[in-house]
What we know:
The chain is an all-alpha fold. The protein has helices at about 10-40, 50-65, 70-75, 85-115, 130-145, 175-215, 225-255, 265-275, 280-295, 300-310, 315-330; strands spanning about 155-160, 165. The longest helix has about 40 residues, at about 175-215.
Amino acid sequence: MHDKYMSKLSPTVDFWAGMYLVIIAVLSVLGNAAVLVSTARRLAFLKAPELLTVNLAVTDIGMALSMYPLSIASAFNHAWIGGDVSCLYYGLMGMIFSITSIMTLAVMGTVRYLVTGSPPKTGIKFQRRTISIVISGIWLYAGLWALFPLLGWGSYGPEPFGLACSIDWTGYGQSVNHSTFIMTLSILCTFLPCLVVFFTYFGIAWKLHRAYQSIQSKDFQCGNVEKKITLMAVLISLGFFIAWTPYVAVSFWSMFHPQEQDHMTPFITLLPCLFAKSSTVYNPFIYFIFQRTLWHELPQIQRLLFCCSHQVSSPAKEAKLEGKRVKDETCVGLMGISGKQSGSEIISLG
Length: 350
């Protein structure tokens, strides 16, 4: 066994890190499996944007099943199991699932921003086939980036604490090859998707705020509903970014301070990695919490958002909307929700 694959942590820390990963793995598998089962039960009524929520659950459960067992076994073994081959596998899986997750979040935000505020009949609509093609493109994009280190651009290597593998961040200043790969990867697969998520979700929150402000009737009393919808979108996005920010920060620090990395204790480098793995647990809990609370308020949301779209309609359309659509369809333009949809479909906002 090479020294680089030996744990730099004490056996006690390795044991508790392994126990932590066991808990994270179990919660991730159970939570995301529940999301997949829930969506499968209403597959016939599943809206196109909800496929992105399903894809996010698939990436989370895929990471838990394909990566965590190897980390857990290595932690209990006090050394990385499998050597170079398993290290490449682990780095490859980590790249695929992490890039797929962040790109899915970026596409989610973009789709929901385009749909929010669109008229029910003439606004932007996304078909299942379109979203399926986009999801396929996301997986291909992530797979391409994951293959680059195997083809010679960049490389995978063990983490400083010795119990995980990822991109070799410390090689940034060692060659142009590593430098160009890491910077390009950081821009195209981290910073730009984060900016997209940030601006689209805040754009959604602003549109919702404007819509609620435009309604003067006190009968709706929907301020609390507005807060819940905005909070749900923010939590789903921030849960991922908060989990991964410490890891990215430490990785970038090691990029620009390779000589000082030896002075950083292995335990400090372990914590961000463990915290990042918790990102696979957040979404299922957010999904079911808001599914339960928003289900009871769905009629109120529908009335409110219908009136928002109703106010910007022409007088002729207003008459038709009042006479027919309110009774038969109760269209809700801002969220793309029809009266026939279940409350859980609101979760696709995230």
